[in-house]
UniProtKB/TrEMBL annotation:
Classification via Gene3D superfamilies: 2.40.50.660
Species whose genome carries this gene: Cytobacillus depressus
UniProt entry keywords in alphabetical sequence: Membrane, Transmembrane, Transmembrane helix
Name this polypeptide is given: DUF2500 domain-containing protein
Keyword Transmembrane: yes
Amino acid sequence: MIHGGDFMFDFAPVFIGIIFVFIICLILFSIAKGVSQWNKNNHSPILNGNARVVTKRTAIRGGGEHRAYSDYFVTFEVGSGDRIEFEVKDTEYGMLVEGDTGELSFQGTRYLGFTRKKGKIEFDT
């Protein structure tokens, strides 16, 4: 009797197991990275400073046969000339206009708010 195909019956469960472990590791890594960033933000000081809205952008995820989600990002230029991009809520995104100046408040990579000021602001140098 010829035993054909035994390799596939032996290999398939091992291959599926390896893929399963790989996916679980990716999920655990993503969770650990998110918790680490959250913890780092919580331990960062809350910073306030003069800033200007430089640009705005959106990123769309999903679509097709699934629901589409929009992520909103705003780039601020602070007094030192550095630019920082934050993800903001849709309502905040709609209220900000490129060229707006005011006081930016953030904690680590977490956007806390932007208070618009009339007229030109002086950057601390």
